[in-house]
Amino acid sequence: MSKQAVRLCMIGAGAHASAQIYPCFFQLNNVEIVANCDLDLERARSIGSQHGVHRHYQDWREMLTAENPDGVMLCIGDKAHASLSQEIMEAGYHVYVEKPHAPNLVASMEMLRASEVTQKICMGAYKKRYTPAFLKAREFYTKEEFGDICLVQGYRAMGGNNQVAGGFHWQWGCHMIDAMTWIGGPIKEVHAIKNEKDYRATCINLRYVNGAVGNLILASPGGNWEEVRVLGTGMNAVSVKDGLFCTAYQGNDPCGGFTPSFSASGNSSDLQGFRGEMQAFIDAIANGRKPDGDIRDLCHTAAIYEAIVRSIDSAQPERVEVLEAVGV
Questions:
Q1: Which one, 27, 182, 222, 326, has the greatest CB density within 10 A?
Q2: CA 302 to chain centre
Q3: Angstrom distance (rounded) from CA 72 to CA 74
Q4: What is the reported pTM?
C-alpha cells in the first residue's frame, strides 16, 4: 500500500451522495478527500463541511485543475455518468462512478474505450461485491467441497410502479444483474417474460458460460425484499437475504453464515458495502491494479440488461452481446 494518501475529489452532493457516500469519508483509509463540487455551491459547501471536505466548487473542471487529484468519485445521475466519466478519464484521472454507471450498452462501451486509451481506472459502485454477507457467501461457494455452482437464483422487489426502460429493472435491478455475474460468472443467454399487464414483474432465465443456469425475478410492487441462493454440485447451498444475512447449508443442515450486529452505531455503510467499494477504489489507485467491478464488468451488466429487454419484446431467448469485447 502506498504510504502517501490517495487524493480524491467528489462530484455531486445530492440525496444519495449525502446519505451514503459522504458519511463514509471518515471511515476510509489512506485517502484525503481534498474537495467537492456540485451545481448548487451552497449544498456542496454544507454537505462537504459536515464530512471533513473543506474546499468546494461549482465547476468540476475548475476543481480538477486547481486540485489535481489522483481520482474522482462521481454521483450525479446515470444519464450524465457515462459522458462525464469519459471526460474525467481523458483529463487524466481515475474515476469511481455510482450506479447505474450509464444509460445503455453503447455508452458503457464508450467508457471502456476511454479507460483503455487513457489507462485510467473506471470502477462502478456495485456494492453487493463488498457487503459482508455476500463476501461470506463467496467464502462458502468457492470452497472445493461446495462443488461447481450449478444454479444461481435471485429475487428482488422494490416498491414502485416503474417501467423496464430506465425504470426499476435498470435503476435498481442493475445491482442484482451484477450480483448474478459476480457469483456465477459471465452470462451468455437470457430468456425473460413479464407480467402480461405491465412490466412490474419479470422472470428471467439465465444461461452461464460455464454451463450453470440461473433465474432472476425483478418486481416493483409491494415492499423491499431480496434474496439470492447458490446451489453447488456437492449438495451444498448458500443464501443471502436482504443483502445482510448469509446462511450456508450442508445438505439440509445450516453450517455457518453471517448475521450482522446492529448494536454498533455507524456500521450501516459497512453492511451495505458502500465503504468497502470506496476503499477498493482507493486501494486500486494506490496499488496500480484493476478493482473488482471495473468497466469490463459494467459493460457485461449493461449487455445483460439490454438482452433482457430484447427478450421481453421478442418472447424468445436472446444472446448477451459483447462477451468477447469485454474479455469475459
A1: 326
A2: 11
A3: 6
A4: 0.91
Task: Kindly list the structural domains of the chain, giving each domain's residue range(s) and its CATH number in brackets, ordered by start.
Answer: 6-126 (3.40.50.720), 128-248+294-319 (3.30.360.10)
Three cell numbers at 234?
Answer: 456437492
What is the C-alpha to C-alpha distance for residues 60 and 69, in angstroms, rounded to an integer?
12
Tell me: the pLDDT tens digits for 58-109? 999 999 999 999 999 999 977 789 999 999 999 999 999 998 898 889 999 9
E strands, the chain, in order:
6-11, 31-37, 56-57, 71-74, 94-97, 122-124, 149-157, 187-194, 201-208, 213-219, 225-232, 236-241, 245-250, 253-258, 318-319
Model pLDDT for residues 130-176, shown as the tens digit of each residue? 999 999 999 999 999 999 999 999 999 876 555 544 466 777 788 99
Three cell numbers written together for 188: 451468455
Buried b (16+ CB within 10 A) or exposed e, 106-116: ebbbbbbebbe
